[in-house]
Amino acid sequence: MLVNILQGLPTTLVLTIASLGIGIVAGIPLVMLRRSRFGVLRIAARLLIELLRGIPPIVWLFIIFFGLAPLGIRLEPLPAALIGMGAISAAYLAEIYRGGLAAVHQSQYEASAALGMSKTDTMTRVIGPQVIRVSIPAVATYAIALLKDSSIAFTIGVTDMMHFAHAESRYFADALTPFLIVAAIYVVLSVFSAWGARWLDAHLRKRVAG
């Protein structure tokens, strides 16, 4: 039973890591629009973020997987899940980045300008590293939540661990055991993820202190 459930582990990890990666990258332009000097862009970005975060992930997956088919857009389960979870991740990470940017004191911008640094250099060499360090705990917390949320992808046919646990529960009299096993695996993955995040945060703090 355990071996069968572990068949879905690679898909679970791919879905989680890839969705987080999409969010990490896509969240940057989204937070830039959120902080734009143009009101229209700020409002549009805010509405998009609230829309992505306000609708349950499973609804987004159904919209993308089932709702686009009548328009002639047919996606395989995994790509559909990646698009949905990646877009949601971008919204959450944009807000995390916004919080990180707010934590950087205005004097940092002023000092960079006094040194003649361009806006690009200021963001990439001064502000960016500080935002990354400040945001790591929140990103790690979201990554663990994303790992658990990825389990809903089996509802549209993604062959992750929940898919195989559900299949096992249909063939054995003890329908609960497969789900207890997959729950234990998620706990182990979450613990290792939290440990890795703490190590990375401590490592970056040492570099800053040094």
What is the gist of this entry?
This protein has helices at 2-6, 9-34, 39-54, 57-67, 77-103, 106-114, 119-149, 161-171, 177-209. By secondary structure, it is an all-alpha fold.
The strand count comes to 0
Calculate Rg over CA atoms: 20 Å
* Share in β-strands: under 5%
State the end-to-end CA separation. 49 Å
Number of helices, where a helix is a run of at least 4 consecutive DSSP H or I residues? 9
Percent in helix: over 70%
| Helix-strand topology string | HHHHHHHHH
Characterize the biggest β-sheet: none
Give the uncertain stretches in residue-range form. none
Q: How much is the average pLDDT?
A: 90
| Class based on secondary structure composition and strand pairing | mainly alpha
The outline comes out as flat
Structure commentary:
The protein is an all-alpha fold and about 210 residues long. It contains nine helices and no strands. The longest helix is centred in the C-terminal third of the chain and has 33 residues, at about 175-210.
Topology:
Layout: H1 2-6, H2 9-34, H3 39-54, H4 57-67, H5 77-103, H6 106-114, H7 119-149, H8 161-171, H9 177-209
Which tags fit this structure?
210 residues; mainly alpha; 9 helices; 80% helix; flat
